[in-house]
Amino acid sequence: xxxxxxxxxxxxxxxxxxxxxxxxxxxxxxxxxxxxxxxxxxxxxxxxxxxxxxxxxxxxxxxxxxxxxxxxxxxxxxxxxxxxxxxxxxxxxxxxxxxxxxxxxxxxxxxxxxxxxxxxxxxxxxxxxxxxxxxxxxxxxxxxxxxxxxxxxxxxxxxxxxxxxxxxxxxxxxxxxxxxxxxxxxxxxxxxxxxxxxxxxxxxxxxxxxxxxxxxxxxxxxxxxxxxxxxxxxxxxxxxxxxxxxxxxxxxxxxxxxxxxxxxxxxxxxxxxxxxxxxxxxxxxxxxxxxxxxxxxxxxxxxxxxxxxxxxxxxxxxxxxxxxxxxxxxxxxxxxxxxxxxxxxxxxxxxxxxxxxxxxxxxxxxxxxxxxxxxxxxxxxxxxxxxxxxxxxxxxxxxxxxxxxxxxxxxxxxxxxxxxxxxxxxxxxxxxxxxxxxxxxxxxxxxxxxxxxxxxxxxxxxxxxxxxxxxxxxxxxxxxx
Length: 481
What we know:
Elements: E1 5-9, E2 12-16, H1 26-33, E3 52-59, E4 62-69, E5 82-84, H2 97-104, H3 114-125, H4 133-140, H5 150-163, H6 168-171, H7 173-183, E6 189-192, E7 197-200, H8 204-213, E8 219-222, H9 228-233, E9 241-244, E10 254-256, E11 260-264, H10 269-279, H11 281-290, H12 293-298, H13 301-307, H14 315-320, E12 324-329, E13 332-337, E14 342-344, E15 347-348, E16 355-362, E17 368-375, E18 386-395, E19 398-407, E20 414-415, H15 417-423, H16 432-441, H17 452-470
Parallel strand pairs: 7-9, 8-9
Antiparallel strand pairs: 1-2, 3-4, 3-5, 6-7, 10-11, 11-16, 12-13, 12-16, 14-15, 17-18, 18-19, 19-20
Helix pairs in contact: 2-5, 3-5, 10-11, 15-16, 16-17
């Protein structure tokens, strides 16, 4: 039996019936069904931020506000949540502090991107902490302004807290939390439309049982939608069923036993950030470059792993740290090293009906040196040309054990096994034998991001950089970073 999707907007429960296709995006729904045209479509792939909206969700008895890209978020993902759009902010003729700050600092030029910037700042406003310039830039890195008006927009981000520290939404939080509590589900959402079904299991057992009932090749697993959303908006694909992992309780868990961190496959990058930073600050810095705040609020570490892209940024550091993944199916769970999960281009070791349940990452020890370097044409939110991750264990200045992994160098994220063997027993920073071995480990391809020659030379130089830094020298590649 089909059930409606329910979410809260403007203090009212919105009910979405079967006339809304299961792959309709929130942006389409806002503009075409609700006629709220403030949110704009600039790219339809989560890059420009013009479509930014804010999602409110009950977390530990408080309302959490997060900016997301409406262009790659499906309407059914709003179930049980609150939606805030740019039209909601003003109270009659009275502007919201964010809007007032934008006016006072002359932060809008052509205006097309302005609603997205306003909503990103609105989410910042509700974080409860006055942002410094670095965190403001991070919050706005997913919003592009073609008029190059970033300076006054950053000024508006500072000014909004001078105007007010709270808004009318703060006063309404208790009532909103009560509404959201009434929308909470205890069993799977099944939203059936003429175009297909959207299924949101609540437990991992319910998820596995659901997958067994669906025809092979006609269903998609949806975690954050930062890749799957593009299959709809760019490739115009339509699955028969979407199975959403965002409500499976067991996939949202993070644990730390002191020696390793285990992150559930449904945990977003935003929620996993502190755990990733506990592994190593370099890993956390890479995640900050992996995607904008909007992308990190939606995308999941497990989704990036399961997707198996050769240029997925999270896999090389995970492989270098010796991560293992847990797969779950009807027969139970099994574990394997992450590097063994990738069998070929976009091919993984998942058996029919299996899912990625979690990833477990050992913490580097006191005798370890670890680093991640990303080379891309743009610093923020760009796909890597080459990403290198390096992890060595030392006896004094001598390498006892090495794990080196690259993205962008092969059909899958892969270890540089010959370079690792050449590095074992070497004294840092003397790594030229390992550098030469990289030419045997990889035969990279040329594409729009980089030539094969550039990729190999860059990979070699990143290994040299790591060796120097692990030996106590600090090297900055200004042109690359």
